[in-house]
Design a protein that fits this description.
This protein has 111 residues and is of the alpha+beta class. It has four helices and five strands.
Length: 111
């Protein structure tokens, strides 16, 4: 799990994501982080997913929507599913996004 602010800078990351990525990521630009970890031929689909999620920040996303999550392979030879949600205050102001990554490598290799 990691959090980005409205400018797309990683402001918080849990130990597990940093251990999985084998480095600290706080302070990185989201686009730079994704360029570093997502295999090039899947980078566009991750960008498309994030753009759709950002566009719907003020409008709840249908849970059955095609943009509920994105699956990608990493340059570390791992497979991930990522879900992203807006961080919104009680006043309705968005302060960033939270990104959840699930490592599905073992599951994807078993199929």
């Amino acid at each position: 799990m990691f959090v980005t602010d409205n400018d797309g800078v990683v402001t918080l990351a849990n130990d597990l994501i940093e251990a999985t990525l084998e480095r600290p990521i706080v302070g990185m630009e989201l686009n730079d982080l994704l360029d570093d970890i997502v295999v090039p031929h899947e980078r566009a689909s991750v960008s498309h997913y994030l753009a759709k999620r950002k566009n719907y920040a003020d409008d709840p996303v249908d849970p059955k929507s095609e943009i509920e999550f994105v699956r990608f392979s990493s340059k570390l030879d791992r497979n991930f599913v990522m879900r992203t949600a807006a961080i919104v205050s009680d006043a309705g102001e968005q302060s960033g996004q939270i990104h959840y990554l699930a490592d599905i490598t073992e599951l994807s290799r078993a199929v």
